[in-house]
Specification:
The complex is a heterodimer of chains A (277) and B (264). Chain A is an all-alpha fold. Chain A is built from twelve helices and no strands. Chain B is an alpha/beta fold and 264 residues long. Chain B has nine helices and ten strands. In chain B, the strands form two sheets. Chain B has a six-stranded mixed β-sheet, with helices on both faces. Chain B has a four-stranded antiparallel β-sheet with strand order 2-1-4-5, covered by helices on one side. Chain B is globular. The chains are: A mainly alpha (277), B alpha/beta (264). At the A-B interface, helix 9 and helix 10 of A face helix 2, strand 6, helix 3 and helix 5 of B. Chain A: It is found in: Cell membrane. Chain A: It is a multi-pass membrane protein. Chain A: It comes from Streptomyces filipinensis. Chain A: Keywords: Amino-acid transport, Cell membrane, Membrane, Transmembrane, Transmembrane helix, Transport. Chain A: GO terms for molecular function: transmembrane transporter activity.
C-alpha cells in the first residue's frame, strides 16, 4: 500500500515529472545545436568546396551525364524491373499453387535470392554463367545481362510482395467470382490480380527505388564508355579529374529520380489509407 | 412440385473434427422458395454453400437441374453459371463500376458481346431499381444498394436457381426492406430460391416452405404456417421464441455441443 502511494504521488523534493520532461527536451535541442556549431567551425569550407563543388568540373559533366549516364541508369533499372515483375509474378503464383513442388521451389528461390548480396548475383550472371555456358548469349548484350541480374534479385522481393497482395484480397472476392462461373485462373486474372496490384503499388514502387540504386552494380560487369551509368560515370570522372565533384553531381542525379518516386509512393499510401477508412 | 430443381442426398460436411452437416436430405422444386432458418452454427450456411460446391461435401450428393455437382467429372464452372449466389457481405468487385460488375462476368464467362452484356446489365439494374447508379463504384453505395447490385449481377447471368446466404444480415435495419422487396419480386416471377435468413416475416409471407435446422440436421420441414406458426419440435419453439422476442430470453447453459463456424 505504502509503495504504490509514493510512486503515484508527486515527490515532495527534487524536480516534478513535468520539469524533468522539459529538461530532457532542452538537452536534446542543445546537443543538436552544439553538433552543428562544431561541424561549421571544424570544417575546412574552402577545401570542401574545392573537392565537391567545382562549377567548372560540374559543367564539363554535361550533357553526357544526362544523355548517357542517367539514360543508362533508367534503362538498366526499368529492364530489370520488368524482368523482376514477370518472374516475381510467376514465383508468387507458384508459392500459392496447390502443387506442392511448385510451392517448395518458389520458397527455395525466394530464400536464396533474398539471402545473397546483389553484387554476388551480378558477378554470377556477368562472369559465372558465360564461363560455365559459353553458348549462352544474353539478348541485348550488356542490357540483357543487367536485366537478368537485376531481375533475379528483385523477383524474390517482388514475389513476396505480390503474394501478400493476392492474400490481402478478401476471400469473398474469389468466392463471388467462382460462384459466377469464373474458372480459378480467370478469376485470378480478372478479379484478384487487379485488386492485388492496387494494394501493392506502393511497395512495388519502393522496389523500383531500390533497383535504381542497385543498378550501380553494373560497374562490376565491365561496360564500354557508352554503356556507363551514373555511378561508374561519376567514379571515372572523379578519377580523371582527381576531384569529387562528379560523385556529388551523380548523386544528385539519383535523387532527381528517387525523391519524386518516394513522394509518389507516400501520396499513394495516404490515398489508400483514406480509401480504407 | 414438378421435378426437383435442387436435390441434396445424405449430405455430410466436416471441418476437421467439426461435423457441421450430419446427413441432410432436401428437395426444392422448380419455382419453389425455401427459407432455411436455425441458430448460428446449425450448418445452414454450409448447406447453402454446398449446393454450389463453394464447400466440398465430405459425403453425399448434390443435384441442381438434373446435373450431379458432386460428380468429380462435372464441369463445375459450367454448372455454377446456372446457380446465382448472393452473399451476406455482398462481395461486389470494388475495382469495377456497378455496370462493369454486371458486364465483366457476362463477357468473360458467358462470352457475350459488349452490346448484349451492356443491355442485359441495364435491364437487371432497372429490375432492382438502381438504373441511376450504373456508373457509381460499390464503395459509394449503401449496403442495401450494394446487395441489390449483387442480386442484379447474379441475375445477369440468367440463373435457373438463386441461393441467398443471409442477404440482409449485414444491413442496417432500415435498408433491409429494399433488398427483401427485390427478393419478393423474384419469388413472384417464379425463380427457384433457397434463402438462409433470420427474416421471419419474409419467410412467413414469401416462402413456400420453411426448413428449420439445428446441430447439422433438418429438424422440421413444412409450410411457413406449420414450421413458424405451429412448430412441432421443442428446439424449433425455443429458437423461434428467442428470435421473435430476444429481450425475453433467459441466461442458460449451452445446450448444443455444436461449435458453429461463426458468421462474421
Amino acid at each position: 500500500m505504502a509503495d504504490t502511494d509514493t510512486r503515484i504521488q508527486p515527490r515532495k523534493s527534487g524536480l516534478t515529472l513535468r520539469q524533468k520532461r522539459r529538461l530532457s527536451r532542452g538537452a536534446q535541442y542543445a546537443l543538436f545545436v552544439a553538433a552543428v556549431i562544431a561541424f561549421a567551425v571544424t570544417a575546412d569550407w574552402g577545401r570542401l568546396q574545392n573537392q565537391f563543388a567545382q562549377p567548372g568540373i560540374a559543367q564539363r559533366l554535361f550533357p553526357a551525364i544526362i544523355t548517357v549516364a542517367l539514360k543508362n541508369t533508367v534503362l538498366y533499372t526499368l529492364s530489370g524491373f520488368v524482368v523482376g515483375l514477370v518472374l516475381g509474378m510467376v514465383i508468387a503464383l507458384m508459392r500459392l499453387s496447390s502443387v506442392g513442388p511448385y510451392r517448395w521451389l518458389a520458397g527455395v528461390y525466394i530464400e536464396i535470392f533474398r539471402g545473397l548480396p546483389a553484387l554476388l548475383i551480378f558477378i554470377f550472371v556477368g562472369t559465372g554463367v558465360p564461363l560455365a555456358f559459353p553458348s549462352v548469349q544474353y539478348p541485348g548484350g550488356i542490357y540483357g545481362k543487367v536485366a537478368v541480374a537485376l531481375g533475379l534479385v528483385s523477383a524474390a522481393y517482388m514475389a513476396e510482395t505480390i503474394r501478400a497482395g493476392i492474400q490481402a484480397v478478401p476471400r469473398g472476392q474469389m468466392e463471388a467470382a467462382r460462384s459466377l462461373g469464373f474458372s480459378p485462373a480467370r478469376a485470378m486474372v480478372s478479379i484478384i490480380l487487379p485488386q492485388a496490384f492496387r494494394i501493392i503499388l506502393p511497395p512495388l514502387t519502393n522496389e523500383l527505388v531500390l533497383l535504381f540504386k542497385d543498378s550501380s552494380l553494373v560497374l562490376f560487369l565491365g561496360v564500354t564508355l557508352e554503356q556507363r551509368e551514373l555511378s561508374k560515370f561519376g567514379n571515372d570522372l572523379a578519377s580523371t579529374t582527381a576531384n569529387s565533384t562528379p560523385i556529388l553531381v551523380a548523386g544528385l542525379c539519383y535523387l532527381l529520380i528517387t525523391i519524386p518516386l518516394s513522394l509518389v509512393v507516400r501520396r499513394m499510401e495516404s490515398k489508400a489509407q483514406r480509401e480504407i477508412r | 412440385m414438378t421435378r426437383p430443381e435442387i436435390r441434396v442426398q445424405d449430405l455430410h460436411k466436416s471441418f476437421g473434427d467439426n461435423h457441421v452437416l450430419r446427413g441432410i436430405d432436401l428437395e426444392i422444386g422448380q419455382g419453389e422458395v425455401v427459407c432455411v432458418i436455425g441458430p448460428s452454427g446449425s450448418g445452414k450456411s454450409t448447406l447453402l454453400r454446398c449446393v454450389n460446391l463453394l464447400e466440398e461435401p465430405t459425403w453425399g450428393q448434390v443435384f441442381v437441374g438434373g446435373t450431379e455437382l458432386t460428380d468429380p467429372d462435372v464441369d463445375i464452372d459450367a454448372v455454377r453459371r446456372r446457380i446465382g449466389m448472393v452473399f451476406q457481405q455482398f462481395n461486389l468487385f470494388p475495382h469495377l463500376s456497378v455496370t462493369e460488375n454486371l458486364t465483366l462476368p457476362q463477357r468473360r464467362v458467358l462470352k457475350r458481346d459488349k452490346e448484349t452484356a451492356a443491355r442485359i446489365a441495364a435491364e437487371n439494374l432497372a429490375r432492382v431499381g438502381l438504373a441511376e447508379k450504373a456508373d457509381a463504384y460499390p464503395s459509394s453505395l449503401s449496403g442495401g444498394q450494394q446487395q441489390r447490385v449483387a442480386i442484379a449481377r447474379a441475375l445477369a447471368m440468367g440463373p435457373e436457381v438463386m441461393l441467398f446466404d443471409e442477404p440482409t444480415s449485414a444491413l442496417d435495419p432500415e435498408l433491409v426492406g429494399d433488398v427483401l422487396a427485390v427478393m419478393r419480386m423474384l419469388a413472384t416471377e417464379g425463380m427457384t430460391m433457397m434463402v438462409v435468413t433470420h427474416e421471419m416475416t419474409f419467410a412467413r409471407e414469401v416462402a413456400d416452405r420453411v426448413v428449420f435446422m439445428d446441430g447439422g440436421l433438418i429438424v422440421e420441414d413444412g409450410s411457413p404456417d406449420q414450421v413458424i406458426g405451429d412448430p412441432q419440435h421443442e428446439r424449433t419453439r425455443h429458437f423461434l421464441s428467442r428470435l421473435l422476442d430476444p429481450a425475453m430470453a433467459q441466461v442458460e447453459e449451452e445446450t448444443s455441443d455444436q461449435v458453429g463456424r461463426g458468421q462474421p
